[in-house]
Amino acid sequence: MVRSLSLALSLVPLLTLAGCSLENGYLTDIREQNFTEIFDIAGAETDIVFFADNSSSMQRELVKLGQTFESFLDHINDANPRWRIITVTGDDGCSTAGVLAQDTPNVVDLFGQGILTRPQDGNSDEWGLFMVRQAVLKSAPGLCNEGFMRPGANLHVIFLSDEADTSPGYEAGGRYWQDYVTAIVAAKGDAEKVRFSAIVGPSNGSCQDADPGLGYIDAVNASGGEVLSICSDWTDDIEILADASIQQDTFPLQHEPFVETIGIRVNSEDRLEGWTYDLDSNSVIITEGIPSGRDEVVVSYRGYLTVVVEEGAEE
């Protein structure tokens, strides 16, 4: 949600015009003015896919995720988002728990059962990227995940595995994972609304009980998500994944600003750096310390305001 305030510049006469035109009996004035826009991230819709590697070595970690899920939800609900969640363990991409929402009865139990549901094909346990691609494609009307992926919602994909992704194509190495990421983003329709995170083995191979989460980590890095080490007590950091589920880094402005006048505050803290302005979308993009669902972002700037007044009317 965005609230907008505009204040006439005290040092600029109100009738100072950058341009005017007469059209259909109305005079259009363009005036230089101050604007303040307030963005409340709380309440943002978020759709979350949990991929759970169901190989035999993962059973303890799956149980831990089920036990931690209530804390994950509590943290998200503190920001009051409208969330939907699916659990994916098989290569058909169909959720093993249905489409979960805030009003789903016994949601914690259903989630725990869902992530422990083994796929019919035991050879596809580590096909995380493939399964998630299938899951989002099958969110279309009439398919098994219908109603999960909403047009305006953020999409957060969370992988849990103790091995690298082995989706079809991984044998070729390189950037095979990019094809899956591209397909998932295309299904969503907006790359800025897609984020990948993972609980996997570290990329440096420092974990004795898990292989590096290659493929998953690549997708996370490409989207600015979060990586938790499966070799640590990651349940203590589950709120990091909850915050990543409701982050917002792009803030569309209602008027085109004079870029040098833009000021940004997050929770009353001035952000002098760590952001950019994108002319094509007329948006401020925060690149460091991205706000989460409980934050308030204030963008102030100077720009032009178009005012339409009836021809001959006095102001």
Structure description:
The longest helix is centred in the N-terminal third of the chain and has 20 residues, at 59-78. Strands 1, 2, 3, 11, 12 and 15 form a six-stranded antiparallel β-sheet that branches. This protein has a six-stranded mixed β-sheet with strand order 6-5-4-7-8-9. A three-stranded antiparallel β-sheet has the order 10-14-13, with no helix packed on it. Helix 1 packs antiparallel against helix 2 (107-115), helix 1 (59-78) crosses helix 6 and helix 3 (128-137) packs parallel to helix 4 (176-188). Strand 8, helix 5 (216-223) and strand 9 form a beta-alpha-beta unit. With 315 residues, the chain is α/β, with parallel strands linked by helices. It has helices spanning 59-78, 107-115, 128-137, 176-188, 216-223, 238-245; strands at 2-7, 19-23, 26-40, 45-52, 82-88, 100-101, 154-160, 194-200, 227-229, 250-252, 263-266, 269-270, 275-278, 283-286, 296-310. The protein has two domains: 2-41 and 248-310, no CATH class; 45-245, von Willebrand factor, type A domain (Rossmann fold, 3-Layer(aba) Sandwich).
